[in-house]
Amino acid sequence: MRTQAEEPSTAQDQRSGLPPWLLLVLPGLLLSFLSLRVVAPVTDPDTYWHIASGDHLRRTWDFVLDDPFGAAAEKPWILNQWLPQLAMSVADEVAGLPGVVWLTVLGTLAVMATYYVACRRRSSALVATLIVAVAFLATSGSIAPRPQLVTFALTAVVTDAWLRTTVDHKPRWWLMPLTWLWACSHGMWFMGIVVGGATLLGLAASRRVDLRAAFRLALIPLASLVAAAVTPVGPVLLTSPFQVSGVTAYITEWQPPSANDPAFLAALGLILIVVVDAARNRQGRASYVVLLTVLAFVLAVAYARTAGVAAAIVAPLSAAGLTRLARQPAPTVSHRENQVTAGFGIVALAVAAVMVPTVAARPGLGANELDAEIAALPVGTVVCNDWLDGGWLIWKHPNVRVTMDSRVEIYSVDHIRGYSAFVNAGKGWEAYLAENSCTVALLRTDSAIAHVLVAHAGEGGATTRGGHVLLRGLGD
Questions:
Q1: Pairing of strands 440-444, 462-465
Q2: CB atoms near residue 325 (< 10 Å)
Q3: DSSP assignment, residue 331?
C-alpha cells in the first residue's frame, strides 16, 4: 500500500501531537470497534429469507424461479445475491444465527478495511482513520447481515483501482472477474461499471490519455458488463436491478433521506471536504474527481439506502483532499503498520466468535413465543402475516406460506396496497383475506387489524403471546 513518495509514515503524523504508538494502533482499534458493534441479535427481516434462499439453492440450484415460500408473489424471483446467501446458509447450518452474525462481523470488517486502504493510500493514518469513522456513520444504517455489505466493500475497491489508473493509466483487468463475483453477490453490481465509466469520462475530458489508451481502458467496463451476463443467473441478471423500480415508493430504505439523517449528513460531510479542496487546490478540480463527487452526491440525496455507496466512492477523495488542505506530505505505509492493523482485525474476529453464541443465539424478531403453535399448522397453510415477520416465517417455519415479506420486488403494486389496507384495517381489508385464501393470520398485537380480528375470533381462535397473536379459522 505505497504511493510515489517514500517518506516514513510516522513523520507525516507528527504534526498531530499524538504519540507514535497511538497512531500505530489507532486504525486497528477503530476497525475492531466498528466491526464488533454488529454483534447483536438479528433484527433485520431480510436476513432470514436470505438464509432460507441459500438453503433452497443448495437443494435445487435454481437461480430464476417461482417463489417457493409465499402464496402471493406475482413476479419471478431472481437470485441475484446467491453467493453470500450460500455463505449465510452454510454459516447457519454450522453454527446457527451466531454463525451468521459472526459472518456479518467479518463482512463489516472487510468493508471498513477496504475504506481504510483506499483512504490510507492518499493520506496519513490519522486522516484515514478520521475519514473511515465518518464513512462508517454514512454506511451504518445499512450495516446488517445482508449481501449489500459486498457492494460497500467492492465499491471502495473499484474506486481505489480506478483512482490509481488515473495516475499510471494502467488497465486493471482483474476488475472484470471481480465484477463477475460482484454480480453473483448483490443487485448493485453495476456500480463498479458506473464508477469506471465516470472516471474514464473524466480522463477523456481532461485529455490525460490518448485515444488508444482510452479505448483499452474502456474495454474494462464493457467486458465487465459481459461478465455480469454470464453468471449462473444468466442474462436476466442485467435487468434484475430494475425489478424493484416499480415498488420503491413502498420501501423505506429507497426513500430520499431526511435532512437530519446522520448517514446522509456524514456522506455530505465527506463530499464537502472534496468541494473545499477543489476550491483551494488544482488537483481537487480534476475532471474525474468532479464526476465521481457528483455521482456520490446524487447517490447521497437520492435514497437513504445509497448513502453508504456514496461514502465508499467519495471517502478516498476526501482523504486526499484533507491531506492537501492540511498540507501533509504524501503518505507511505510501513509493514509494521499493516501487521498491527491486521492483528487487531484477527483479534476482533476471535472476540466476536466468543461473543456471538451468547448474544445472537435467539432471533431478534419474529413470534418466537408462538413457535410450537406455528409449527403445528398443516404443511402449506397460507398465513396473512405482518411483513416484518415474513422472512422469519420463511426461515423458521417452512410448513407455512407467507403472503407478505420484505422481498417487495416479487409482489405487485396492487398486492402491496391490499396488504397496507389489510394491516391498517382500512377499506376493503376483507378482500385481502379472501384473495390470498388465508385461513390463519400471524400479526403484531399493536396492529389495527389484530384488534379487529381478535374481537371477532371465536373461543380458542386467537392465541396471544410475546407481542404477537395467532388467529385460526379465518376462512370458516
A1: unpaired
A2: 15
A3: P
Contact assessment for residue 328 and residue 124, using Cβ atoms and an 8 Å cutoff: yes
pLDDT tens, position by position, 131-173: 999 999 999 989 999 999 999 999 999 999 999 999 999 999 9
Reduce the DSSP state of residue 402 to 3 states and report it: strand
DSSP assignment of 295-325 equals HHHHHHHH-GGGHHHHHHHHHHHHHHHHHHH
CA 142 from centre of chain:
5
Listed in sequence order, the residues at least 6 apart from 88 whose beta carbon sits closer than 8 Å to its beta carbon are: 47, 50, 51, 54, 100, 103, 145
What is the grid cell recorded at 270?
Answer: 465527506
Checking if the pLDDT of 5 tops 50, the result is no
Reply yes or no on whether the pLDDT at 1 is more than 50: no
The model carries a pTM of 0.92
Residues contacting residue 183 through CB under 8 Å, at least 6 positions apart: 80, 189, 227, 228, 231, 233, 237
Q: State residue 10's pLDDT score.
A: 47
- The residue ranges of every structural domain in the chain are 9-36+80-354, 368-472
Amino acid letter, residue 179 = T
| Grid cell for residue 152 | 460497500
* Angle subtended at Cα 44 by Cα 239 and Cα 379, rounded to the nearest 5 degrees: 85
Phi, psi of 291 (to 5 degrees): -65, -40
